[in-house]
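Q: What would this complex look like in 3D?
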Amino acid sequence: MATDSVTSSARTEMLRRIRAAMGGVSEAAAARRRWDGITREYRSAGLLGREAVLKLLEDRLVDYDARVVRVGPAGVAREVAERLRERAVRRMVVPGGLEVGWLPGSVEGVEFVVDTGLPVSELNEFDGVMTGATVAIAETGTVVLQNVAGEGRRAATLVPDYHLCVVRAEDVVETVPEAMARLQETAAVATTFVSGPSATADIEMTRIKGVHGPRFLDVILIV
Amino acid sequence: MSGVGLDPRTAPTFPMAAKAMLGDTQLRKNVRHATDVIQAKRARVVAEMPDWQQLREAGKQIREHTMAHLDFYLEEFETNCTRAGGVVHWARDAEEARQIIVGLVKASGSDEVIKIKSMTTEEIQLNTALEAAGIHPFETDLAELIIQLGEDRPSHIVVPALHKNRQQIREIFQRKMNLPELGEKPEDLADAARMFLREKFLRVKTGVSGANFLIAETGGVCVVESEGNGRMCLTLPETLITVAGIDKVLPRFQDLEVMLQLLPRSATGERMNPYNSIWTGVKDGDGPRVFHVVLMDNARTEILADGEARQTLNCIRCAACQNACPVYRQTGGHAYGSVYAGPIGAILTPQLQEMKHAQSLPYASSLCGACYEVCPVKINIPEVLIHLRNKVVQQNTAGVAGFFDVEAGAMKAMAMIFRSERRFRAAQRLGRVVEGPLVRRDGKGDGWIGWLPGLLGGWTQVRDLQEMPKETFRDWWERRGSNGN
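A: Here is my prediction, written as structure tokens for the whole assembly.
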């Protein structure tokens, strides 16, 4: 491609300009050492107790138009069935590896289809998607999804209009730094932070729910 | 207003453009409303954070550190992104970036692209270049869609259509989407955008995005957004082309813990915006199969070379400074003649033009410091504004030109007068005599000067000058005598 030679001489030139501007080549060891020296006096670990953290997550999710319910481990499937009935959802897509115990044995008129890399046009035909979450951040009302078993690829949680997300209490942290520490190991896996349903404030700065992503988000919190 | 992009090389000077904008009462009302709402939201969620100042300090240090080791982090990003299956390109300027992107779109076999809102693509006027090459770009962010369909220009970094109200947006959508029955509730308008764009998301095979952050440690890219249009563009196409300024790099994944707290609260007044996407290269069965990143300089290395202005590059494009700026709040964004408006635009735009154009922008400020106070990475914008004013003067008075420059001459004369008490007093006495014919009395008997000749006229163009006092403080002090009466 014609751009290859352009980009290679551009690369050389840009790096030369940067080094000229900063007075030399920067060494890896110096960069690492100075990065360690950055002052980080902000809160890292949260201060709240367990129950207060869960309450905060609920409040913050609700504040941005998600719905939250708490259930015990044995009640998940029943709660899922209840949510789907309430939302009048018929066809649900689920990622491979989703906890089998979370799925209701049979709900009148509801069909669960495992996402085996369905074409996008087919994803578009589903009413909703159900997933787990890697971690949830109480302070910001965020659930974090990754391309792992039970959460699946990004398109599946995007195209359908309804997202039902099941979060385990032990995966809830209070602060953003706590969440990033948990994600560090899998930092290269495709990751999506979801904080409430799709929204926009582009018209007169009024936050309104629902543009292109799922317009409805329910969270089931297993305690 | 036309579809022609904002180009600092041809834009009128700020005072001229601002004067025109100040006459548009609807625009001023819309801008005032939007910036009031967003500032109130920001203040509320910032107040929730007991460690906001510590986060700002960390944000500043991370950005300064990145710039100090930019060559290292860019190469690290390139290595890791390439290892993960991405293709990294380097572009010295806007023209090279446009060529690379147009070439990549053509190679993807598509004559349409779906686009995420990106200030960098606005900066390089990518859409014009794509259209010239027969490629149709669809803007998918609601505000950018409003701008594109309305053949308008962005006026704000985060909310580009903030100068339009719901009635104006409805009119554009009715006309361009052929929806005569469309309501004017924001929900109706968002629904219309959803319907209009869904088919394009499902069909178009190539996406173009900007980036909020490039993560050197992992080779990953982070994009923050609200509507889900970003996720659509990042996930559904077969080919994704991301263009980013070289200033967008972050050393490590962990640094996001600072930026993802600072950015949403500063930009939209949310604790977290609805969606953040982080992806690294390509992955079978999830997202595009082909992924390109274009790293663009476009005068950023010039800024890096200027030690006093370097902090301009620390900007994370939250636009909090625009919302807080008393000048921006009056004029709106178009007066700045650049896609980067407001205080950050006033320092960034002329520097991106290597100080050859947009020379009036560093003066588009009262230096009140509101921008510095809200900046999440503590860019001292007033300091940079003064530095750039100095640069403009030095540049325009360099060499022989400076010798004949009236303003430079006047400044030298002023300096000479101010250095000597005797000369200063003589000048005051002279002033009182000379001003006589220009002074007009108001109802209370106070004297005002409404017009001054020549260069001095710049002052009286927009304000009256009070006449000089009959007695100066020094005269009064001396008259009191040593006993204090």
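A: To summarize the key features: Residues 73 and 216 of chain B are 6 Å apart (CA to CA). Chain B touches chain A through 104 residues (CB under 8 Å).
Q: Very helpful, thank you.
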